[in-house]
């Protein structure tokens, strides 16, 4: 109650910011066997993805906690599992079966997908290249609320300081209308709709008009509430709920250029980027954990509950089923809840198609190091 009151008061001081939901409760884990996991056959890419996460986790102190809900222990509990594989440990299936114990995250899971889009860009403003892509503004302040109260771990608020008060930052509509004086323009793009979807994905690639390429990675956001514009189009009876997908939304925006900007501006949230070298084209941009994302081996989760760096087994049903070990390496504004995951599909047309159509129920399992699993027992509820 005190933590919730603190958050409400802080948001009131920020003049109308949207308060994040309270810390989730009621995470239920039940020990299961690997034999019970549907279509269990992890790919070697999952082991490589886990090793990338381990390299980052092992830089932290032993006492560092891994999950907001507390079930994943501390970095010390993961050092054995993160030791370099040897012998048959280099095989993904043997590695996970020998070193981990699976726990079912109770409740029906919901899986969506994301991908790495590409947009066109120019370092100078000319012809159709009129939409600026901004770096992080120098006056943008991000406050980690977990530093003020541990019960708010994973929550943050963004804004700008005026005098001694934290004020809301400009909305998408305000930025589109007036720009941002205190932010560097990284480049200009020729397609505001494609740029909007890149902001939704959070990172991507840019092909410049001189033939060069680069990555553009998430650097921050304006702190305004995120609204899925699919909901806007449903409310306006422009699309039926059952036909909403990335593809149908984009098709509607392209077909209605006179309304597109207004609809996109109903999402007040705005993402700022950092430009980095393209690097390994087989991998995605860097996720929230700090590791490069691996197609079909990286997962975005709710970090208020789950441990970034932990491996999960995803069993997603639907017309495009997915069964794979994926490592929690990213987060997302819409990824809320214990049985919620966002699958990274990679780069290219097929990745875009699969990610845009992915909305499936299924089951989610977390794999915990054996010694840690022994402490948890057969079934646990978190927080205790």
Description:
- It is a single chain.
- The protein is an alpha+beta fold.
- It has two domains: 188 residues, RlpA-like domain (Barwin-like endoglucanases), CATH 2.40.40.10; 159 residues, Beta Barrel (Ribosomal Protein L25, Chain P), CATH 2.40.240.50.
- Helices cover 24% and strands 29% of the residues.
- It is built from ten helices and 17 strands.
- The chain has a six-stranded mixed barrel with strand order 2-15-12-14-13-16, surrounded by four helices. A six-stranded mixed beta sheet has the order 4-8-3-9-10-11.
- A hairpin with a 5-residue loop joins β13 and β14.
- It is globular and about 60 Å long.
- The N terminus is likely disordered.
Task: Record the SSE blueprint.
Blueprint: H1 2-13, E1 27-31, H2 44-57, H3 92-99, E2 100-116, E3 118-122, E4 131-134, E5 141-144, E6 156-162, E7 165-167, H4 172-178, E8 185-189, H5 192-201, E9 204-208, E10 213-221, H6 229-235, H7 246-255, H8 257-264, E11 271-276, E12 298-300, E13 311-316, E14 322-330, E15 340-347, H9 349-357, E16 359-369, H10 370-376, E17 379-382
Short note summarizing the structure:
The protein has helices at 2-13, 44-57, 92-99, 172-178, 192-201, 229-235, 246-255, 257-264, 349-357, 370-376, and strands at residues 27-31, 100-116, 118-122, 131-134, 141-144, 156-162, 165-167, 185-189, 204-208, 213-221, 271-276, 298-300, 311-316, 322-330, 340-347, 359-369, 379-382. With 384 residues, the chain is an alpha+beta fold.
């Amino acid at each position: 109650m005190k933590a919730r009151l603190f958050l409400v008061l802080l948001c009131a001081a920020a003049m109308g910011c949207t308060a994040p939901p309270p810390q989730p409760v009621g995470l239920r884990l039940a020990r299961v066997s690997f034999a019970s996991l549907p279509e269990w056959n992890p790919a070697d890419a999952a082991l490589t993805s886990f090793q990338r996460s381990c390299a980052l986790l092992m830089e932290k102190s032993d006492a560092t906690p891994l999950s907001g809900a507390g079930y994943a222990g501390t970095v010390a509990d993961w050092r054995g599992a993160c030791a370099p594989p040897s012998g048959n440990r280099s095989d993904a299936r043997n590695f996970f079966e020998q070193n981990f114990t699976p726990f079912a995250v109770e409740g029906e899971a919901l899986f969506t997908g994301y991908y790495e889009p590409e947009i066109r860009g120019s370092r100078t403003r000319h012809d159709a290249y009129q939409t600026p892509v901004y770096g992080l503004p120098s006056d943008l302040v991000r406050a980690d609320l977990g530093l003020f109260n541990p019960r708010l771990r994973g929550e943050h608020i963004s804004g700008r300081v005026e005098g001694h008060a934290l004020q809301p930052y400009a909305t998408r509509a305000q930025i589109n209308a007036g720009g941002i004086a205190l932010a560097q323009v990284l480049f200009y793009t020729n397609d505001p709709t494609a740029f909007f979807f890149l902001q939704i994905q959070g990172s991507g690639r840019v092909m410049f008009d001189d033939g060069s390429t680069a990555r553009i990675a998430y650097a921050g956001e304006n702190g305004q509430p995120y609204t899925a514009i699919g909901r806007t189009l449903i409310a306006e009876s422009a699309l039926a709920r059952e036909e909403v997908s990335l593809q149908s939304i984009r098709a509607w925006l392209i077909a209605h250029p006179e309304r597109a900007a207004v609809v996109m501006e109903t999402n007040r949230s705005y993402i700022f980027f950092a430009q980095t070298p393209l690097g390994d084209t087989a991998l995605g941009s860097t996720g929230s954990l700090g590791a490069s994302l691996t197609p079909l081996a990286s997962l975005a989760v709710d970090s208020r509950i789950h441990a970034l760096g932990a491996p999960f087994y995803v069993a997603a049903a639907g017309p495009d089923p997915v069964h794979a070990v994926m490592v929690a390496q990213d987060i997302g504004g819409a990824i809320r809840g214990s049985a919620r995951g966002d699958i990274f599909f990679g780069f290219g047309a097929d990745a875009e198609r699969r990610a845009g159509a992915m909305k499936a129920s299924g089951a989610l399992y977390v794999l915990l190091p054996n010694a840690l699993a022994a402490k948890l027992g057969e079934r646990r509820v978190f927080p205790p």
